[in-house]
């Protein structure tokens, strides 16, 4: 894993090309030192002053751009709720514009996912195992399957003085080599996994809100849980710690790079889903790596591609 620094000049002059995309797809972190995503101190002060109560302790604040809605926040007046929606939606727009500048090959090809605000101190957060972010994992969203798409996330933090500390390990291929079979890669083709997909399809046909998971999504969800519960992996010597400073922006594919957050408070993040065919090096995408290992396609679209080839 490398940290690739991108300068403001590379962004401003449009000379970046596919440099950042290639670095990200290989499981590296792209950092923009000193990039202020907020142009108004008042917005930062508002977010820092937002008091979450105990009942919302386990959640981050989510902004859902498609619905223009905020969830998971405790606001004390309708004015605050409106302001939070405004601040989050402007953050989301700026983060997306920045992503398009840093990753020109992806612009217009991604599916915009949620943005989030993370107001809690991560050190010592008391969460159930699957939700613990202090254990290294690759990301997979239970409610939003990607169908082979990559989870690209842009982070920043508004903490005035404290770093956010991550532990990271990769690349994905070595992680998969070591653990994917044990985590059940071969089992997602048939048996109970296939039955689950068939039942979910029936559920959706009768109007139930059941996520449309492919075999890839089923595996990645299981892999997320497997890695969090694997003691050997959690203590691997190959992992290293990395500090993100206040006012930095960093990006990575969180389904490619295994990561955990050890400490830090007041981060914001925007997620986009990159379809495999939009990647610069689709052959190293997790879905391709896993298909080579499994020996069968992991999504219906890839099965169709193979049949027509
Ligand atoms: O909040 C962070 O710094 C990263 C947490 C994480 O692993 C996640 O949200 O998937
Ligand atoms: Fe994560």
Distance between the termini: 34 Å
Helix content: 25-40%
Determine the mean pLDDT: 93
The CATH architecture comes to Sandwich
What is the CATH topology?
Answer: Jelly Rolls
Question: What is the count of β-strands?
Answer: 11
Low-confidence stretches: none
Structural class designation: alpha+beta
CATH class: Mainly Beta
In this entry the ligands are: 2-oxoglutaric acid, fe (ii) ion
- Radius of gyration in whole Å, from Cα? 19 Å
Order of helices and strands: EHHEHEEHEEEHHHHEEEEHH
Biggest sheet overview: 8 strands, mixed
How does the overall form come out from the CA principal axes? globular
Question: Could you please describe the fold and organization of this structure?
Answer:
The chain has 309 residues and is of the alpha+beta class. The chain has a single domain, classed as Jelly Rolls, CATH 2.60.120. The chain is built from 10 helices and 11 strands. The strands form 2 sheets. An 8-stranded mixed sheet has the order 1-2-9-6-11-5-3-4, covered by helices on one side. The radius of gyration is 19 Å and the shape is globular. The mean pLDDT is 93. Bound molecules: 2-oxoglutaric acid and fe (ii) ion.
């Amino acid at each position: 894993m490398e940290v690739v620094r991108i300068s403001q000049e590379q962004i401003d002059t449009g000379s970046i090309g596919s440099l950042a995309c290639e670095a990200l797809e290989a499981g590296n972190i792209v950092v923009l030192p000193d990039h202020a995503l907020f142009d108004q101190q008042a917005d930062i002060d508002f977010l820092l002053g937002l008091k979450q109560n105990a009942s919302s302790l386990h959640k981050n604040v989510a902004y859902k751009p498609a619905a223009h809605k905020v969830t998971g926040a405790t606001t004390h007046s309708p004015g605050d709720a409106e302001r939070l929606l405004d601040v989050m939606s402007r953050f989301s727009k700026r983060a997306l514009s920045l992503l398009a500048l840093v990753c020109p090959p992806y612009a217009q090809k991604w599916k915009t996912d949620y943005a989030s605000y993370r107001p809690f101190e991560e050190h010592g957060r008391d969460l159930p195992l699957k939700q613990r972010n202090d254990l290294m994992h690759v990301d997979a969203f239970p409610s939003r399957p990607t169908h082979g798409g990559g989870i690209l996330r842009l982070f920043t933090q508004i903490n005035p003085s404290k770093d956010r500390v991550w532990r990271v390990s990769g690349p994905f291929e070595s992680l998969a080599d070591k653990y994917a079979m044990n985590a059940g890669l071969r089992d997602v083709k048939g048996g109970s996994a296939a039955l689950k997909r068939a039942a979910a399809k029936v559920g959706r046909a009768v109007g139930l809100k059941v996520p449309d998971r492919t075999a890839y999504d089923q595996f990645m969800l299981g892999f997320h849980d497997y890695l969090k519960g694997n003691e050997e992996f959690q203590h691997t010597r190959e992992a290293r710690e990395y500090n993100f400073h206040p006012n930095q922006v960093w990006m990575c594919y969180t389904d490619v790079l295994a990561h955990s957050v050890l400490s830090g408070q007041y981060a914001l993040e925007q997620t986009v889903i990159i379809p495999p065919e939009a990647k610069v090096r689709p052959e190293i995408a997790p879905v391709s790596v896993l298909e080579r290992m499994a020996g069968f396609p992991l999504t219906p679209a890839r099965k169709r591609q193979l049949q027509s080839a």
